[in-house]
Amino acid sequence: MKDSEKQTSSRSSPIPIKSRKKGGLITMPFIIANEALENVASYGVLPNMTNYLMREYRMGFTTTQNLLFFWSAATNFLPIVGAVVADSYLGRFLTIGLGSIFSFQGSAVLWLTAMIPKARPPPCNQTGQACKSTTGPQYMLLVFSFLLLSIGTGGISPCSLAFGANQFDNGDNNPNKQRVLESFVSWYYTSFVVSVLIAITGIVYLQDRLGWKIGFGVPAILMFLSALFFFLASPFYIKQKVRSNVFTSFIRVIVVAFKNRRLHYPNQNSDYHHKNGSGPQVPTEKLRFLNKACIIKSPEDVKPNGVAANPWNFCTVEQVEELKALIRVMPLWSTGIMISINLSQSSFPLLQAQSMNRHLTKGFQIPAGSFGMLLMIALTIWVLLYDRVMLPLASKIKGRPVRLKPIVRMGLGIFVSCMSMVVSGIIEHIRRKRAISEGLLNNSQGLVEMSAFWLIIPNSLNGIAEALNAIGATEFYYSDLPKSMSSIASALYGLGMAVANLLASVVLSAVDKYTKGEGKESWISSNINKGHYEYYYWLLALMTGFNLLYFVVCCWQYGPSVDVDITMRMMEPSDDEDEDKDDLPKKNKSTADSNSW
Questions:
Q1: Positions of E strands within 362-510
Q2: Where in the cell is it found (predicted)?
Q3: Rounded to 10 degrees, what is the CA torsion of 59, 61, 64, 70?
């Protein structure tokens, strides 16, 4: 009887169905496609935007450039906000999803400005009447599209790579997990380079040949596909929970140090609060006023497990030292702002290229907006040569592995950027003299008998400067900041670009204001042949030279820097269990060993 009951119950019990594990390689194409299509859409509208604003909205050159500076500043700053929102509030999946929707909406609104005639000023008539300027609603609609695009980038850019890495945190002990993750990172960055090159060449070519309606419509379609592909794989994603952000820790240290400003420094080391079992037991003497944030005022303030009863009453020594490390690198971080200002002058080479001979063959000429790809090509070639040719050759000559310290490469990048501005000014000086000699002083649309391929030189120098400074700075931040601050290290370069865009606008406006007067044309006139763009380039070169001296002073003040293998540094375990899941095995260049030139 009992046997029959057991058989009956076993038949009636449901057979457990093994659910499919989430994450893994199946999610990779969707994440990479989302990022790549967003890059094509966003980078595709930027190179020719100067032409669109000056021709269709009849903005002056200074107004156009300042608007683009503000747009770039927002685009570079909002990813920092997006990282905080993703880590502390919404999670990475939702942040990327909302970013994709905002980017699509921004692309669609920008496309509507080209499709709807009333969305921009009417064409000038030939009856001698003054051309109508841009109205307030037309200007606001344009700025609204820029804002939506920046918000979208702020959601996608800081989260895609980390969200892709999260897809391998599925709990299995696959021995090939690290290799697959590194392969994903390589494909991610490869897709970024390819997508940007497609944007600068293909999308710009469509805008030049088929007009703005097609040129802005294609990016809008691509952005729709980007959002669609990302949401299609939603059931397969690993969606990790949000966690506290390191920015909160910084604010807490500052607040608590201010609250405890009247306390005396303790005589015993035990009066400082620190994490159990790890980290420094006593804070360092540098920036000593912050040490008051980790003073234990009363034993009752600490729980039996060693955690603060109220985190806003005192902090740990580790939290204080993290803020100190960030403050220490800020002067060196500020030296990179000038090189970012130089790199943000994209409208000047565009106008130069438009006035020069761009024919590759008799029947084909390169679009003026596509000359920006020379910078990225030069950057890629330099990284490959440095990593695969120069370092192995130098190591073979010296008989031991050698490498340039990150801080040395940062300085070399500033110097090369200075040389790029000098060369740009020389080329512009020659171009302007030829334009005047050919009778094109009052015709800014006239073609000068001078090859635009002379612009390869300054673009290549800019690419080498960015490769040296940007990669060197990123390695410097990762090596000298604590392991728990890797998210800050990755955000510092974008923050520098945002500040640089704002300062570039200040410099441009000041030059325009103080170089024009009664009967005197501004250096940065909308008529490239009447202005003196070469003087502006040389002013930037002079500012970069002073910045190089400032960099030397900052290096002296900072002292010896840490020189470690960045790849190994990023793979080593963190004190925080959550931080382990977020650190990525990034392939940094020239990290073979700790020996340096």
A1: 364-365
A2: Membrane
A3: -150
Q: How many CA atoms lie within 13 A of 190 on its CB side?
A: 6
pLDDT at 269: 62
392-409 residue pLDDT tens: 898 888 888 888 888 999
Q: Are 46 and 172 in contact (CB under 8 A)?
A: no
Q: How many CA atoms lie less than 13 Å away from 576 in the CB half-sphere? A: 16
Lowest mean pLDDT among 211-215, 267-271, 538-542: 267-271
Q: Tell me what percent of the residues of the chain surpass a pLDDT of 90.
A: 30
**HEC string for 285-316:** CCCHHHHHHHECCCHHHECCCCCECCCCCCCC
How many angstroms separate the CA atoms of 412 and 465, rounded?
A: 7
Per-residue model confidence (pLDDT) at position 339: 93
Query: What's the DSSP call for residue 450?
Result: S
DSSP state of 280: -
User: Of the ranges 75-89, 223-237, 243-257, 261-275, which one carries the lowest mean pLDDT score?
Assistant: 261-275
pLDDT tens digits for range 78-102: 988 888 888 778 888 999 999 999 9
Q: From CA 202, how far away is CA 198, in angstroms rounded?
A: 5
Nearest to 490 by CA among 221, 161, 223: 161
How far apart (Å, rounded) are the C-alpha atoms in residues 523 and 154? 35
Enumerate helices (H) and strands (E) in the chain, giving the number of each. Answer: 22, 2
Residue 94 φ/ψ, nearest 5 degrees = -70, -35
Using the predicted structure, report yes or no on whether residue 592 has a pLDDT greater than 60. no
Burial readout 554-564 (b: 16 or more C-beta within 10 A, e: otherwise) = bbeeeeebebb
Distance CA 299, CA 273 (A): 10
Residues 6+ apart with CB under 8 A from 573: 580
What phi and psi values does residue 24 have, to the nearest 5 degrees? 90, -170
Handedness of CA 45, 46, 49, 51 (dihedral sign): negative
Q: What pTM value is reported for the model? A: 0.78
Where helices occur in 157-290 by DSSP H, the ranges are: 160-166, 177-198, 204-210, 212-232, 246-259
- Residue 145 in this model has a pLDDT that exceeds 90: yes
Q: How far apart are CA 391 and CA 397, in angstroms?
A: 10
Tokens 């009849």 correspond to 58
Give the Å distances, CA to CA, from 408 to 414, 469, 552, 596.
10, 9, 10, 10
Per-residue burial over 245-270, b if 16 or more Cβ lie within 10 Å, else e, is bbbebbebbeebbeebeeeeebeeee
Q: What is the pLDDT of residue 547?
A: 96
Q: For the chain, what is the mean pLDDT?
A: 82
> What is the identity of the amino acid at 183?
S
Dihedral sign from CA coordinates of 307, 309, 311, 312: negative
CA 396 to CA 320: how far, in whole Å? 44
From residue 49, give the alpha-carbon distance in Å to each of 134, 209, 311, 525, 557.
16, 15, 49, 18, 42
pLDDT at 193 over 70: yes
At 596 the pLDDT is 29
- pLDDT higher at 304 or 319: 319
CA angle 31, 492, 186 (to 5 degrees): 35
